[in-house]
Amino acid sequence: MKTTQSQSELLFESKKAKIYLNPETCTLELMWTKNADKEDYKSVSYKGLELLKEYRLANWLSGIKNNDVIDDELSLWLQEEIIPRAVSYGLKKVAIVMEKDAFDKYYSNFIYNNSERTGIEYLQFFDTKDKADAWLLSNHKL
Fold first, then answer.
1. What gap in Å lies between CA 90 and CA 84, rounded to an integer?
2. pTM here?
């Protein structure tokens, strides 16, 4: 079963990102359209958190193919500020769609190795949105 951005409802748009609600996968989709600085990254992340809570979603997809790898400080902020709050709102599954280069591998290893500490039950990395959607639709014992 394939999903496309056209099946998703655009909830928010900035100069650097778009946030969608995908009703098929019950997922908040944060798709970076351009490289974001720290201020943009935090602002959009907070908006995503607000929408996750408002729509009571358990799934989050982050498309980072069009954004540079975030630095350690911002990654730590994400793990200490955003992810725990999202988990407290009911977040269970996170899918990250990214390129397969060395920097992304470092970023994914950093997040993955710390996912248990943040409370995320399921975290996976994908090179296409279709693969991420298939995983988000799969059944896990939650």
1. 10
2. 0.83
